[in-house]
Amino acid sequence: MSTYEARLSALREQMAKDGLDGFVVPICDEHMSEYVGDYAQRLAWLTGFGGSAGSAVVLKDKAAIFVDGRYTIQVRDQVDGKLYEYVGTADHSLIDWLGNNAPEGATIGYDAWLHTQDWAKSASAKLQKAGAKLMAVQTNPIDAVWEDQPEPSLAKLDVQPDEFAGKSSADKRADIADWLMDEGLDATVIAALDSVAWAFNIRGQDISNTPVPRGYAIVKKDGSAELFVAPEKLTDDVRVHLGNAVSLRDYAEFETALSEYRGQKVGVDPERSVSAIFEQLENAGATIIKKRDPTILAKAIKNETEINGHKAAQARDGAALTRFLHWFSENALNDQDELSVAAKLAEFRGQSDKLRDLSFRTISGAGPNGALCHYSVNEETNRKIETGTLYLVDSGGQYRDGTTDVTRTMAVGEPTPEMIKRYTQVLQGHIALAKAVFPKGTVGGQLDILARQYLWADGVDYAHGTGHGVGAYLSVHEGPQRIAAFGGFGEPLVAGMICSNEPGYYKTDAFGIRIENLILVEKREINGAEQDMLGFETLTYAPLDRRLIDVAMLSDAQRQWVDDYHTKVLEIVGPQIEGAALNWLKEQCKAL
Question: Which positions fall inside the Peptidase M24 domain (predicted)?
């Protein structure tokens, strides 16, 4: 099965054996993760799509792949249009497509370990109206035909010391126990991998670039807990760290362990727990109370130790990025391409003995590839760095004390007036969000327009959110906060949350622009204020490309922001670099 056509054919043959007329294929694992282990890359194996969000439906005589606006171009480059219809989720949901395309009497299969219960109920209702039905499969048919499917990782767990976590695992579990008592619950299921890692102060290597272990947890109202991980992953240090209050059980026992909660009230997060967990608890006779995972908000609001660690990591990372930007300014046209430049940036980051991993696969986009906002370079798409173009690099590092995520856009040679105009508009939006002051209770969606206003005024926009949460040596994309108007306005911003600030502009087949820094929500003291106010502190420090800034377009306040920002860059990064790189940085940080 060396071709995607052969794989699709094999899946259809397996579907027929299983009595299915269709099957739904998401990018997901048993923990509703955004980034998944190699064993769970079923959509990529089946279709060739390499994005981090998407899904497909395969029927007997047709198939479709569903992506959001970030991947509109990428999906056409990677997935054969003769095999799959391209569907944008902004126009048609997968469930609606199923309702319109599933034949009457059809049985559509889904893996209950890869979908939420709410999704399954909605899909079932839609199919019922069409005279079809949804059925959970016992074995995923892709797993049945994927002959060289990788095994789940057995990498050892690692302890995240309290000196970086800022709070012990025992104290975190005590907080969860207090929450359970307040809610009248006996136990809660923690299924999200970063939640498990945070609650138990453990880390892992089971997903590329995200230091989480593959596991489940059940925390009880007395503060004790059961942690489900493959026994091969445990070390003596981890066992000692977890202590006697945590019962260690095999990952494979989790499904049957749920049946032990008969007659108990169990909290389950409907957004972060798969349908199979609900089904198992229901069949066991447990009373399920739908509640958000109690670690979600606590994890998002960083404590003082985590904030200080983040700042140290950002400063360290900013120095590595600055060395790279200096190198790029001198070497971009010396037979460089997207892969070689991304490797060079990784080399600069790797000079720090504190780097544990990258925080995601570097987005290295030259010229028109930069217009693919979540572009992932490979040998087939790799482009040379050419004069007269823009180069966009979105990258980050995983350090024991913090997770970084930063985007810079650089001119290669002489930029065009259009490039300068769009970059300056993106910069104006970035500044507007960075300077925002807002009352307690404000949600990210209310601030999103600040970053888009200068682009909107010119009739253009970008098809992604403006900001996402970031973990503390955890996931580079962390909820519940976000700065985006898509899908509702979202979670109130709280002091201690960390978000990205990343407006952009993308011109198809031409260039892409994005400016991204991480920002910390902090309290603002305002004389005469009649309510509690919040604002942002910028955490990321690396120079902007001044060749792309039209100073005449900036207001005095915006120009001052850039000058102040560059002063701080020189203050934070300058002492960490020397020689030609330092001289270059001083030139970049001169007042506009």
Answer: 310-522
184 & 309 share domain: no
DSSP string, 59-91: ESS-EEEEE-GGGHHHHHHHS-TTT-EEEETTT
Structural domains counted in the chain: 3
- Cβ(406)–Cβ(397) below 8 Å: no
The Cα 590–Cα 495 span in angstroms is: 32
Query: Among 97, 115, 145, where does a domain finish?
Result: 145
**100 burial type by CB count under 10 A (0-12 exposed, 13-18 middle, 19+ buried):** exposed
Domain CATH for 247 = 3.40.350.10
Does pLDDT of 462 surpass 60?
Answer: yes
Report yes or no on 588 lying in a domain. Answer: no
pLDDT in the model for residue 489: 58
User: Distance from first CA to last CA of the chain, Å, rounded?
Assistant: 58
Residues 311 and 205 in one domain: no
| Bridge-based pairing state of the strands 158-159 and 397-399 | unpaired
Segment 117-121 long-range contacts (CB within 8 Å, at least 24 positions apart): 117/270, 117/273, 117/274, 117/275, 117/278, 117/279, 118/270, 119/95, 119/275, 120/275
**Structural domain harbouring 471:** 301-583
Residues 240-298 have pLDDT tens digits of: 999 999 999 999 999 999 999 999 999 999 999 999 999 999 999 999 999 999 999 99
Both 277 and 347 in one domain: the answer is no
Q: Which residues contact 17 (CB under 8 A, 6 or more apart)?
A: none
> Domain check: are 357 and 404 in the same one?
yes
280 and 173 co-located in one domain? yes
**Residue pair 123/38 in contact by the 8 Å Cβ criterion:** no
